Amino acid sequence: MFVFSTKKATETGNLEANQAQFRELNVARNSSAQAVADLLARATMGEFGKLDAVNAVDDIRRLYKAYDQTVLKQFEPNSEFTLLNDLMPLSRSVRLEESVYEYARTGGRGWAHTSMSGQIGAALDAKSYTFDGTMVPIHDSGFKFNWRDPVFNKGSALSSLADAQAGSVDDVRRQYVDYIWEGFRDAAGNYIKFDDKTWKGLRHDERVSQVTLTVNFATSTDPKAMRAAAIALRDVLKLQNMQYGQQTWYVSSEIMSNWEQYFDVNSLRTVLEEISKLSGIAAIKEDAELTGNEIVIVPLQAGVIAPIVGQAFGTVADPRQFYNSDYVWRTWGAAGLMVKQDINGHYSVIHASS
After folding, report:
1. CA 104 from centre of chain
2. Which Pfam families does this chain map to (predicted)?
3. pLDDT: which is higher, 116 or 76
């Protein structure tokens, strides 16, 4: 889970890890409580305001509760990043210490048997396993107010603080979206390896089938050619990789617009409607991250893709060391993305482009 919510954590089976993550955040918040008290005093009582953290505990709690509600609101599944919206309910929470999340890859068929007596040896070698894993890096953003900032002389000080916090949450959310698509790179553009694991994004990672399209779905005016190419693309997952889960297609705005042309001369149905009716395609959705002739195909309910969240996103103040230290805040969380292959190298997620 990307957010702190007892109700949602209980519904998704993530309650224990989500509560452990909240305790981790509270430890950081308690260590900087006086910094928040100082800011509240300046914002409400002016330059001579003084407030002790012990006496301001309720005010501090209300402030952080408002911040957590902002995170909850911004991570509602209604953004322009449709794939992220659909992945949110699939997220798995782990402990913050779990910087690499490992999982088993199975494949092939072992053996089983049928008998009347049931006295034949148990099928103990029914499956073969190898292990893969994904990193769970930290994504963060920050904002600050200078200790002499004129905003403290205005009644809008706390509103300005709330706006800055909302902006930092949006920055972190977009940073995670970039991580999903482009992977984890250093400042020089090289992919980072941690514990022998890398993540190169849906556009480049070896766990994702990279398919070259021979038909330009964004510009083609041949509906039948597009339908045939769509069938071929569906079958890359279904027949070549033996992934029979219902497929959700994420397409660019250009493709979605082009597929609104009519499929037949009688103007009875569009290309979009025609392709949506193909067997095995559950939905076709537009994603703002995709451009031109670009498609991503995911079987959402097959258990092959999920965000791995080591720390739900939250905002915390930095402790202030000196009287003239700035008021610094950080919004952060830890999240990676699991994309599975089976032991034989079959893919379950496709990125197609030309």
Report:
1. 21
2. DUF6260
3. 76
pLDDT tens readout for residues 176-227: 999 999 999 999 999 999 999 999 999 999 999 999 999 999 999 999 999 9
CB 88 within 8 A of CB 69: no
* 111-158: pLDDT as tens digits: 666 777 776 655 555 556 778 999 999 999 999 999 888 887 777 788
> How many helical (H) and strand (E) elements, i.e. helices and strands, does the chain have?
9, 11
CA distances from 210 to 87, 180, 293, 344 (A): 20, 15, 13, 17
Contact between 142 and 328 under an 8 Å Cβ cutoff? The reply is yes
Domains present along the chain, CATH in parentheses:
6-106+129-193+306-339 (3.30.2400.20), 209-303+346-353 (3.30.2320.10)
Count other C-beta atoms under 10 Å from residue 60's C-beta: 22
Q: State how far Cα 165 lies from the chain centre.
A: 20
Average pLDDT over residues 151-175: 89
Among 32, 85, 140, which Cα is nearest to 287's? 85
What region does 183 belong to: left with phi over 0, alpha with psi -120 to 50, or beta?
Answer: left
Output the six-digit token pair for 80.
């322009």
